[in-house]
Amino acid sequence: MEGILHKLILPDNDIINEGTKELQAELKKSDAVPALCSVIGSSPNPQIRQLAGIILKKKLVKHRYWLKLPLETRQFVKQGLMQSLVNDQEKSVKTAIGQVIGVLIRHEIPENGWPELMQFIQQMTMSDNINDKELGFFTLQILTDMASDQFLAHAHSFATLFTNTLNGLQDPASNLAYLTLMCMVNFVAAIEGDQFMVNAYHSMMPRVMAVVKGLATKRPDKAVEVLYLVDELADSAISAIVPHLRLIVETCLELSLDRTCGEDLQIKALNIVGTLIQAKKKQIVRLKMVEPILDVLFRLMCTPGEDDGGDDFPGMDESHTPTTVANQILDMLALHLPPDKLLLPLMEKYIIPNIQHNEPNVRKAVYLGLAVVVEGCADYIRQRHMQDFISYVKTGLSDPTPLVTNAALFAVGQFSEHLQPNISIYASEIIPILLEHLKDILKKEEEPSQKVDRMFYALESFCENLNESLLPFLPLLMSYLIPLLSPPHPVRLRELAISAVGACANAAKEEMMPYFTGIMNSFKEYLTEIQSSETMCLQVQSVDTLGILARTIGNENFMPMTRETMELGIQLINKTDDPDLRKSLYGLFASVSTVLKQEMAPYLTIIVDLILKSIRIDKGIILHKDDNNPTVGLFENLSDTEESEEDLGNTSDVSSDKDNSEDGFTVENAYLEEKEEAVIAVRELAQNCLEAFEPYVEICFQEIIRVVNYPHDDIRSAALGTVTQLCIHMHKVSPGGRNALQSALNMLIPKCAEVVRTDKEREVVITGLDTYLELLKEIGSPVLEGEGHTDAIINCVKDVLNCRTECQDEGDGEEGEEEAEGDELLIESAGEIIPHLGKVMPPLEFAQHYTQFLPMFVNLTKKQASDAQRSFGVGMIAECMACAGPCLPAYAQQLLSLLITLARDQNDEVRNNAIFALGELVYHGRDCIFPFYGEILQTLSHAVVNESNSGALDNICGALARLIITNVSGIPLEQVIPVFVRYLPLREDFEENKWVYQSLNNLYQMGSPPLLQNLNPVIKACAISLHGNQIETENRSLILNLLKSCHRDFPTECTQAARELPEPVASTLKEACVS
């Protein structure tokens, strides 16, 4: 056996192949296992001993195979392995032996078949001899890593052992200290729900962090490994470390600044801080740790790049340095903290004082800081700092140092993505600067620099959201871009220009037609000719931009190209194995479906088959081989046919993931993006092709519902969105599809509940809640017919509103405490489900649930909550009133008091929603509100005198209209009507026009003298609303009937009003009067 194994480690393929064949034959012999065990104990070559251990592990992994061995052979193996573990001095061999033992304890311990092993571990770990003690912990670490579940029953004893060992350490950087912490990692699963374990790990955390600091000084690679313990505790047993949060964060911040300990440890320490920010953000704020974290992050962001020109931008490449990770942690702070808790110290201490700093790297850090916080603090910045941020970035764009200019360009791109629509107002200030940068690029012929990438990122992001505001700049912009589409310009520059054309098309839409022919002429060589590996990116980007043009230039303009486009796309996808190109082609097919609609039918069979193949197949998995493992490539050629056949169907023998973990793996981003685009394409095809997509709906649902559990969060979100659309398709399009719909809902409703409660990614949870919302809006009551569906949806909403989901920090914060903007969006997504539930549930049933949700909404309106939360809370109270009728009398006085108070709030949106809610309370509360009309009118009177916000003024008119419609006898019309008509027509919230004109119709039919005395402004308001299409089509008759009645009864008034109106509006009035 030893001779055969020796052949397998020689650097000669022929000899390796010969040895492999011999080993295959040898392994089929009955004495193969003891022979391997003997080699482990006797070979002088450590590489052969290690190889024998690895093969033995593979051989013994099946429980049934182990039991087939004679008892004396099993005893021989166990004794031999334990002896070799003690005697062998090579760590690689000890590890291999430990892994064999780890496999065997799965077979032996459940039957108490190896008491000697546990005695050995106990004896070694409690020995006074440091070498024996280290061997014991080394063995325990390997065994618990391989089969931790076999040891968890003894968790209390081991926790006591770890405590005593850590307390007795002389050197926190010793190997024993390292091994103890690595053993502790494997018992984290036993902590949650076990107070003894929580207390034990809690008491050990100061010593744990002392070991981390000790290892950081002497063995930083080991410090990286033991920090995994903090990761695991934060993920699975956070209660054990919360009391030591300050200590852990301070230690990690200290390590992240220590360049002597190496980048790996710096990055790991920063990531621990990020994990704790996500898990315990409220505690971080309460402990006043935000500013110390900001200080460290900014210092790291100011660190020069290794190449002096490196910009270390987050998300722009695959590099991971302390600087890029610091940017990511700042982004995480913005996403998870209330904006004022982050932005105030950031602006005051780091941005404003350093905007003109002498050191370029500090100025660079300023603009990167501005860039990364905008996503998480977008609303706050739009409301309070918009002008400041624009002013800062304009300064950066004119900075003489390219490093700083690049950072400012990156900031412009981030602003453009996250500060819409406000950012578009500044187009006239920003675009000329970007065009100057583009003009400079055209003058240079060398390969594009980093500045070119940043400039195009800023230009694209800014332009694609401008819509018609881009048009004044479009001719000059296209005169720069179209020449860049073709050779001899560098490939990278052409790729960027092609992408920028797509961004312009998103904004300009049909106005791109004058440039369309020139663009397509440039694309022709990329779309129709075979591309090299260097120019393949141009084909991919051309397909992407062609898809954008199909969506934007108008169906009539693109229709003549649809057949040619589809044939080209199918031809390309049949020839390629490039995931980037397939992804782009799926997007192109979806785009063309917006033009062809049901005429896509001839292409769907081919397209859907290809899409489903991409969804099913997990291509792109990259194995990471261990270079020190002498069996790399070996086991692909080894098999034990007899063993494999007899274990077919024996599910009890399935080994754990760790049994086969010599290789790690990742999935290439390109394949993830292909899968995501394939899922999204199904959604669009179903939405656009309607009946033509009918044959594919059920198979697509069955395939994509499985992807909801995919490890990648973007794919989970895309899958949820697509299966939602497929259910809507079944409901609206599929003939007789009720059974299929109910079957689909029976899978989707509980799946969404699982996502909402357990997914740790907030965006995925929001998508899960949006799924419920869309199903209720588009399908209605069938969503609630399945068993448990109503409870599933309602309980999910409650869990989110009470911060009880995995992606939320439940904490112990005050009620109504401010949240991060992302958390507020999560709460809003949950809350919006409630009124839609009310629309599809029987009123009495909904009333029972309303009584539970109302206190939650009221809680959101408290003073300590953010303006956005308070506005949302009162908005939800208003939206639910139409469905809460039966229980409104019980809450009338409480709601009235709350809404009257909020109608005087300093925030425009809160006031606006409160006044709207008052109107809704009046309309739906009816009799129970009549006694309070005087108080309500007094509130509205006070509000209209002091109000300057257009939306709030419109809602005052809407509330007055509802008062008139509901109980006109309770209104002093002589006082109210003159004020009412003075504020017509509405300025902004045109949905209120329905109520306004209904109330005016009612008053007119009553012959109300105060109204007849004010007909002129009423007629003019009608004409303006009608001319501006400011009322829904189904309610236009309210205006038309009123105008016809006025013209019939008071023609002079109509003629006078027409004279006082601008000509186009007067013409509309005349047509309405005589139609």
TrEMBL record:
<dbReference type="GO" id="GO:0006606">
    <property type="term" value="P:protein import into nucleus"/>
</dbReference>
<keyword id="KW-0813">Transport</keyword>
<dbReference type="InterPro" id="IPR058584">
    <property type="entry name" value="IMB1_TNPO1-like_TPR"/>
</dbReference>
<dbReference type="InterPro" id="IPR000357">
    <property type="entry name" value="HEAT"/>
</dbReference>
<dbReference type="InterPro" id="IPR001494">
    <property type="entry name" value="Importin-beta_N"/>
</dbReference>
<keyword id="KW-0963">Cytoplasm</keyword>
<protein>
    <recommendedName>
        <fullName>Importin N-terminal domain-containing protein</fullName>
    </recommendedName>
</protein>
<dbReference type="InterPro" id="IPR040122">
    <property type="entry name" value="Importin_beta"/>
</dbReference>
<dbReference type="InterPro" id="IPR011989">
    <property type="entry name" value="ARM-like"/>
</dbReference>
<dbReference type="Pfam" id="PF25780">
    <property type="entry name" value="TPR_IPO5"/>
</dbReference>
<dbReference type="GO" id="GO:0031267">
    <property type="term" value="F:small GTPase binding"/>
</dbReference>
<feature type="domain" description="Importin N-terminal">
    <location>
        <begin position="19"/>
        <end position="87"/>
    </location>
</feature>
<dbReference type="InterPro" id="IPR057672">
    <property type="entry name" value="TPR_IPO4/5"/>
</dbReference>
<dbReference type="Pfam" id="PF02985">
    <property type="entry name" value="HEAT"/>
</dbReference>
<keyword id="KW-0007">Acetylation</keyword>
<dbReference type="GO" id="GO:0005634">
    <property type="term" value="C:nucleus"/>
</dbReference>
<keyword id="KW-0539">Nucleus</keyword>
<feature type="region of interest" description="Disordered">
    <location>
        <begin position="640"/>
        <end position="663"/>
    </location>
</feature>
<dbReference type="Pfam" id="PF03810">
    <property type="entry name" value="IBN_N"/>
</dbReference>
<dbReference type="Pfam" id="PF25574">
    <property type="entry name" value="TPR_IMB1"/>
</dbReference>
<keyword id="KW-0677">Repeat</keyword>
<dbReference type="InterPro" id="IPR016024">
    <property type="entry name" value="ARM-type_fold"/>
</dbReference>
<keyword id="KW-0653">Protein transport</keyword>
<dbReference type="GO" id="GO:0005737">
    <property type="term" value="C:cytoplasm"/>
</dbReference>
